[in-house]
Amino acid sequence: MQFSAKSLIMAATLSAMLALPASAGVIDERQEAMKAVGGAIKKLAAIAKGQMQFDANIVKSSAMTIKSSLETASSRFPEGSGEESGIKTRANPEIWLDEEGFAKAMKKAIAAAENMASVTKGEDFMPALGQLGGACKNCHKTFRAPEK
Ligand code: HEC
Predict the structure, then answer these.
(1) Which structural domain range is residue 39 located in?
(2) Does ligand 1 lie within 6 Å of residue 136's CB atom?
(3) What is the pLDDT of residue 16?
(4) Residue 148: inside a domain
(5) 59, part of any domain
(6) Cβ atoms within 10 A of the Cβ of 115, count?
(7) Which residue's CA is the nearest one to ligand 1's atom 20?
(8) pTM higher than 0.85, yes or no?
(9) Considering the domain boundaries, does residue 138 fall inside one?
(10) Which of 64, 73, 86, 121 could form an S-S bond across to 30 if both were Cys, CB 3.0 to 4.6 Å?
(11) How confident is the model at residue 1 (pLDDT cuts 50, 70, 90)?
């Protein structure tokens, strides 16, 4: 069977069109989820800075938002949804080269969020925030590409 250049280009365009919305969807969803994580940790940071009073309910709800949003994000890194998708993303190729390491970093952060959700006393807050913030950095330093 013979393919003309035109039909090859059409096939490539078609497959790109089919691939694009799928990737765009998951990339969008994980970025939205990460934004929710960022929004929730801002509240915790405000408590840390003394801009907001320690309130166990706010701490718990923020931590639960972080946990559930990280869980959402973690399921939205399918292979092929990195830079090669042609969509703006800071997902580092290392995610797919070291899937185990990525999953481990995610698990660590989810556990840190669970720990934060269980904080009821002001004195336990800062250590829990240190652990949680450290878990974000731990993943970002390896698996998130620098801003362009
Ligand atoms: C296991 C890895 C991992 C963990 C843990 C993690 N992140 Fe991320 N985060 C990423 C990756 C990868 C991106 C880039 C996603 C993209 O651009 O497609 C990202 C993006 C973000 C963004 C930018 C979202 C946007 O598109 O505007 C924020 C904000 C963020 N993370 C906050 C956090 C905070 C706060 C924590 C800790 C509570 C955290 N992340 C934990 C991997 C992680």
Answers:
(1) 8-143
(2) yes
(3) 58
(4) no
(5) yes
(6) 17
(7) 34
(8) yes
(9) yes
(10) 73
(11) low
pLDDT for residue 23: 81
Ligand 1 center from residue 43 Cα (angstroms): 16
Q: What percent of the chain has pLDDT over 70?
A: 89
CB 110 within 8 A of CB 138: no
Distance linking the first and last C-alpha atoms of the chain:
44
Question: Distance, CA 41 to ligand 1 centroid (Å)?
Answer: 12
Going by CA atoms, what residue is nearest to atom 22 of ligand 1? 34
Q: What is the mean pLDDT of residues 22-40?
A: 93
The CATH number for 57's domain is 1.20.120.10
Is residue 77 a part of any domain in this protein? yes
Q: Which residues pair with 144 in a beta bridge?
A: 91
CA atoms within 13 A of residue 64's CA, in its CB half-sphere: 7
DSSP 60-119: HHHHHHHHHHHHHHHT---TT-SGGGSS---B-THHHHSHHHHHHHHHHHHHHHHHHHT-
- Residue 9 banded pLDDT, cuts 50, 70, 90: confident
User: What is the total count of domains within the chain?
Assistant: 1
AA identity, residue 16: A
For the stretch 48-82, pLDDT in tens is 999 999 999 999 999 999 999 999 999 999 999 99
